[in-house]
Amino acid sequence: MNHRFFVVSGYCLLVGTLLLVGTMVLHPAGGSPDHIRRITPLLMGSHALAIGSLPLLGFGCYGLAIRLASPSRLATLALITLFFGLLAGLIAATINGLTLPLFVANQPDTIAEQSQVKLIIRYGFLINKPMSYILMTCVTVSVGIWSALLLRRNDLPRWLGYGGVGLVGLGLLGVVLGYDFHGVGGFRLFVFALAGWLAGGGVLLIRTRPADPATPAIVQ
């Protein structure tokens, strides 16, 4: 791969990260059907940003995986794992941010219908929750693998590797302590921490002139 590819993938990672942060800044809290109707433009707009960030993040991480390529192909494993997570994120964003407000907007206001709408909203929430955890788990595993590979390299700065290890460690600590990462506050915290690491990856791709990815320098 030539240097231009790594620069382009680095900028894609930065722009995708910016869109992801914008999503969480604008993301409103859910509520009753009436509340969802009132926030429909903001709800749909914020999730449209999230969906738009996914291909940029995917391409940017593709560049990062190639930059960290090793004979074991663990960087590729991390990339495939990430793609599973992005797919889960796409499903969650589509259901929660696009399908749900469109559905609620077309329902009558009768009491009987309201109870059915609330039941369907609850069903959507139960789909969205495991998708969110799949996304967070896959992303965390990918960041952990890439960070470990970074720490084995002697031709790349290791600060990003240590940052990724710290991010994974904090995530595991949160799980052990029972922290709710699915709520808006918890998920926002996860995304902001991840955004810092992804932005660092983008900077690394843009500023570091790559050696031959097929024969990376590895600390023995």
Mind explaining what this structure looks like?
This protein is mainly α. It has one domain (3-207). It is 79% helix and 0% strand. The protein contains seven helices and no strands. Helix 4 (74-105) runs antiparallel to helix 5 (111-152). The longest helix is centred in the middle third of the chain and has 42 residues, at 111-152. The protein is elongated and about 65 Å long. The model is unreliable at 212-220 (pLDDT under 50).
Task: Map the helices and strands.
Elements: H1 3-26, H2 33-38, H3 40-67, H4 74-105, H5 111-152, H6 159-176, H7 184-207
Please give a quick description of this structure:
By secondary structure, this protein is mostly helical. It is 79% helix and 0% strand. It has helices at 3-26, 33-38, 40-67, 74-105, 111-152, 159-176, 184-207.
State the main characteristics.
mainly alpha; 220 residues
Number of strands: 0
Strand fraction: under 5%
The assigned structural class equals mainly alpha
**Helix share of residues?**
over 70%
Low-confidence stretches: 212-220
Please give the alpha-carbon distance between the first and last residues.
25 Å
Order of helices and strands: HHHHHHH
Total helical elements: 7
* Whole-number total of structural domains: 1
Mean pLDDT: 82
Biggest β-sheet description: none
Over all CA atoms, what is the radius of gyration?
A: 19 Å
The geometry reads as elongated
